[in-house]
Write the structure tokens for this entry.
Amino acid sequence: DQQVKQNSPSLSVQEGRISILNCDYTNSMFDYFLWYKKYPAEGPTFLISISSIKDKNEDGRFTVFLNKSAKHLSLHIVPSQPGDSAVYFCAATVGGSNYKLTFGKGTLLTVNP
Amino acid sequence: NAGVTQTPKFQVLKTGQSMTLQCAQDMNHNSMYWYRQDPGMGLRLIYYSASEGTTDKGEVPNGYNVSRLNKREFSLRLESAAPSQTSVYFCASSEGTVREKLFFGSGTQLSVL
């Protein structure tokens, strides 16, 4: 039973355009969401997070939107750069479960020059 | 800045052999984690240590044991390796809970034949 779903295994965009990565979740108890980026042969690195009390969080070129009623969040990258090419993981945690993250399967983003 | 260091980077075992994966962090973090990533899957938590002297099971603990040797080091032991344990293993650390960013090591690719 996959509680965090990233239904697009891959996404390809042109440099300078917007990349939108999507994530759906089924557990209504999730109250904090994070995005991690992973390059080949490296560990994931933290990108951005959002609390369920917010609907948007922005950090430079990266913005995460949360739609609680739809149980959906999205990561927007504007403008996309070739260096953004990586696997992006959506993750979520339940309030009170301080040490357990549930990860999605990831989306491979390719930004073409 | 070494961050989180995992050893070894690669390992091949025969079924039934044992081994220990080592992890050390130099960021004075309280919490440490072991994850596994299988092809086409998200990361799954094996064990975590919220603080020095404590360890707890994650989502997939069967077949593994852990030791929080001190604040810096958190090892993962496979007592009798099985082919199902073929995976990439990541160690991570955080200052506190998973709501704070996790810092990951570069991973150990383990094959069990």
User: Anything to note?
Assistant: Chain A has no helices and eleven strands. Chain A touches chain B at residues 4, 9, 32, 34, 36, 41-46, 49, 89, 91, 93, 98-106 (CB under 8 Å). The CA atoms of residues 85 and 110 of chain A lie 5 Å apart. The radius of gyration of chain A is 13 Å.
